[in-house]
Amino acid sequence: MSTRPPSSRRVRTVTQALQRAPWVVLTAWWPWRALGYLLISAVLGPLLLVLVPLTLLLLPIWSIAIGALERRRQRLLGFGAIETGHVRVAREDRHNWLNIRLTEPATWREALVLLLDLVAGLFALALLFFEAVALIVVVGVPIHALTRGATEILLFGDARIRLDAGTWWLPPVALVVVLILAAYLNLAVATAQSLTISWLLAPRGAEIDQRMERLTRSRAAIVTAHEDERRRIERDLHDGVQQELVVLATRLGALELDLALLGREADPARRSLVAAQDQADRASAALRESVRGIHPAVLADRGLGAALEELAGRSPFRVALDCDELGRAGPAVEAAAYFVVREALTNAVKHTDATRIDVIARTDRTSLEVVVRDDGRGGADPSGGTGLTGLIARAAALDGALEIDSPAGGPTTIALTAPRGLEEVAHAHPAR
Q: What 3-state DSSP class applies to 419?
C-alpha cells in the first residue's frame, strides 16, 4: 500500500485534479485541456444540428463515427480510450457490415452519445460565449477607464462601481475571479460530459461475453482447420506418394525377374537394381513413419488411450502408462495431448539419460489432463526453439495450458490441461 501523501501523487485524470487544491489545479494543464475539450464540443454541436436533420437516415453511421471519435477524445482529460462494444466483423462478412451494426446495442448507445454531443455542444458554445464576454468586460472596462478617465459601471438595480485612481485594484481582482470561475466551470462541464459518454460507450457484460464467445469459437475453428489440414496431408501422402512407391517397388521386382533370365551378364545391373529396391523400401518406411506422425490413424479410430499405448510400445524406454480415468475428448484436444506425449518421449530419447517415463492421462467432466514425467537430467527449455514452443501455443489456442518443470538435474515434468471439447465429441461421434 502506498504511503505517499495525496498531494505528492501524480495526477493522471481530470477527476483526480478536481480533488486537489485550487493552486495545484490552476497551475497545471487541466484547465486548458478542459477548454480544448469544450471547444471540440462547441464545434460538434452546431455541426450535428445541421447534419442530423438533413441526413436522418444516416444517423447510425454518424453515430458510429461519433462513437469512434469520443472513445479517443477521452484521452484529452486523462482517461484511457474506451473499448468498443462492437463485435469484430470477419472479412467474409464485411458486405453485411451495416446490418450487423444495426442489430448491436452499442450502435444505438452511440446514437444517444450523438444526441448528447449535440445538446452538450450547443451548451458549451453558449458557455464559452458568455465566458468570452465576461473576459472582454473585465479587460475592456479598465482600458476604457484609463483612456477616458473615471468610469461608473452599473451592476444591478442601483448598485454602481466607480473606477478611478482609487479603485485601480478592482479590475485585476475581477479578472482573477472570472478566470478561476471559468476554469472550474469548464472542468466541471467537461468532466460531466466525458463521464456520461464513457458510461454510454463502455461495453456491457453481455457484449464482452459475446466477444469472448466469438473469440473462443474462432480459436477453436483455427485449431479444427489445422487438424483437418493434417488429415488431408496424411490422406494425400498415403493414397498418393505411398502408393506410387508401392508401384515402383513392384516394377523393380518385375525387372529383377527379367534380369534373372539373362544370367551372369546382368549381375552389375542386378546389383544396381537391388540398391534401388532397398532405397525404395527405405523411402516407403520413412513415408509411413511420417504419415503416422502427422496424425496416427489409431488416434482418430480408437481415441487417445489406444494411441498412447501404441506410442509407449514403440518407445525404447520403459513407459508406465496410466489411462484408467481417461475418457474421450474433442479431436483437437486429443491430438494436442498425443503430440505433447510424443514430443516428451522424443526429447527424453535425444537429450536425457532417462530410464523410466511415467505418463498419466485422465479426464473429468470438463477437462483433460496429461502429465509426462521422466527421471532424466532435466534442463528442458522451451525458449531454446524446441518443439515444446509450438505445443505451448497449441495448448493456448485450445484455451488450455502447458506447464514445463525441468530443473537442472531433473526430473522433467510436462503437464497439459485443456477443456475436453465435449461439443466436438458429440459432433464427431453422434448418438446412434
A: strand
Torsion of CA 303, 306, 310, 316, to 10 degrees: 110
**DSSP result, 69-81:** HHHHHGGGGTPPP
Percent of the chain with pLDDT over 70: 65
- The answer to whether residues 191 and 18 touch, using CB atoms and an 8 Å cutoff, is yes
Count of CB atoms situated within 10 Å of the CB of 91? 6
Task: Give the H or E element holding residue 16.
Answer: helix 14-18
Sign of CA dihedral 416, 421, 422, 427: negative
Per-residue pLDDT tens for 335-350? 888 888 888 888 877 7
Q: Hey, what's the cell of 430?
A: 453422434
pLDDT digits (tens, 9 = 90+) for 42-77: 999 999 998 888 887 788 888 888 888 888 888 888
Residue with cell 495448448: 395
Query: What amino acid is encoded at 392 in this protein?
Result: I
Least confident of 60-74, 85-99, 399-413: 85-99
Say which amino acid occupies 179.
Answer: L
DSSP-derived letter for residue 239 is I
57 class by beta-carbon count within 10 Å (0-12 exposed, 13-18 middle, 19+ buried):
exposed
